[in-house]
């Protein structure tokens, strides 16, 4: 039996115009992702990839259907505080635009999510320092984002996503703003995270990036049109 970390059952998501017109984005998606999988989600623009990622990340509610996270019916939760706690404790987010605070050092950017969980300053800064050292940024702790390259900024963003020791990383086009060498480094970090029996769900347009995943899911017009396992590429 699959050890399901993420399970969507007949998941539907629609948005509504001011006129009341319904715009369906996800149309009955059924999806199970096991703990420890590295999954790439691909498809054309407007196919529902980012919406699916946002639903998995508890950022958007479903219009209809079920969402089970580690067996719990998260789709039924509507309390924003509870959803925020789940996100901060269980998930880490990585985006194409690094979303770092310009006036904060790399160390403080990484440590910030741990503050939201109430962790003591020394604990969160020590954790942030270890993470930055693990991705080769031990000599950049006090640098601000403007003093770092794009690849370095994305590594800082990934460390920030990892600081609360999440079970799941959700990444939306994490290599989209990077050169190929920096992109390979990001995939190495994700593969190392997966080796700890953690789960990675990544949206990408790039086939060479998707090859680092264990599984590729294609979305078209809000529906899963293919779902295939593969032997992941080596970095």
Q: What would you note in describing this structure?
A:
Strand 9 (215-220) and strand 10 (223-229) form a beta hairpin. Helix 5 packs parallel to helix 6. With 235 residues, the protein is of the alpha/beta class. The longest helix is centred in the last third of the chain and has 15 residues, at 180-194. The protein has a domain at 38-49 and 80-229: P-loop containing nucleotide triphosphate hydrolases (Rossmann fold), CATH 3.40.50. It has helices at residues 49-56, 80-90, 106-116, 121-134, 150-162, 180-194, 207-210, and strands at 4-16, 22-34, 38-43, 64-69, 72-73, 91-95, 168-172, 199-203, 215-220, 223-229. 32% of the residues lie in helices and 29% in strands. It holds the Pfam family ABC_tran. This is Macrolide ABC transporter ATP-binding protein. Keywords: ATP-binding, Nucleotide-binding, Transport.
Helix percentage range: 25-40%
How much strand? 25-35%
Which parts are unreliable, with pLDDT below 50 for 5 consecutive residues or more? none
- The coarse silhouette is globular
InterPro entries: AAA+_ATPase (IPR003593), ABC_transporter-like_ATP-bd (IPR003439), ABC_transporter-like_CS (IPR017871), ABC_transpr_LolD-like (IPR015854), MacB-like_ATP-bd (IPR017911), P-loop_NTPase (IPR027417)
GO cellular component, one term: membrane protein complex
Keywords: ATP-binding, Nucleotide-binding, Transport
Pfam family, one: ABC_tran
Break the fold down into its secondary structure elements and pairings.
Layout: E1 4-16, E2 22-34, E3 38-43, H1 49-56, E4 64-69, E5 72-73, H2 80-90, E6 91-95, H3 106-116, H4 121-134, H5 150-162, E7 168-172, H6 180-194, E8 199-203, H7 207-210, E9 215-220, E10 223-229
Parallel strand pairs: 3-8, 3-9, 6-7, 7-8
Antiparallel strand pairs: 1-2, 1-4, 4-5, 9-10
């Amino acid at each position: 039996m699959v050890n399901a970390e993420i399970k969507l059952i007949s998941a539907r998501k629609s948005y509504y115009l001011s006129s009341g017109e319904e715009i369906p984005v996800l149309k009955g998606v059924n999806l199970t992702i096991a703990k420890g999988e590295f999954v790439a989600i691909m498809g054309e623009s407007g196919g529902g990839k980012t919406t699916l990622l946002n639903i998995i990340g508890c950022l958007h509610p479903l219009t209809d259907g079920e969402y089970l996270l580690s067996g719990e019916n998260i789709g039924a939760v509507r309390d924003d505080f509870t959803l925020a706690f789940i996100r901060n404790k269980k998930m880490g987010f990585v985006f194409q635009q690094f979303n770092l605070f310009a006036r904060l050092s790399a160390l403080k950017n990484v440590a910030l999510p741990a503050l939201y969980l109430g962790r003591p300053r020394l604990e969160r800064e020590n954790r942030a320092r270890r993470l930055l050292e693990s991705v080769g940024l031990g000599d950049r702790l006090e640098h601000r984002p403007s003093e770092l390259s794009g690849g370095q900024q994305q590594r800082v963003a990934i460390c920030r996503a990892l600081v609360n020791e999440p079970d799941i990383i959700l990444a939306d086009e994490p290599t989209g703003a990077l050169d190929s060498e920096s992109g390979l480094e990001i995939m190495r970090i994700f593969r190392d995270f997966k080796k700890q029996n953690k789960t990675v769900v990544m949206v990408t347009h790039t086939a060479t990036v998707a090859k680092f995943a264990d599984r590729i899911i294609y979305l078209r017009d809000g529906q899963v049109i293919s779902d295939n396992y593969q032997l992941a590429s080596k970095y």
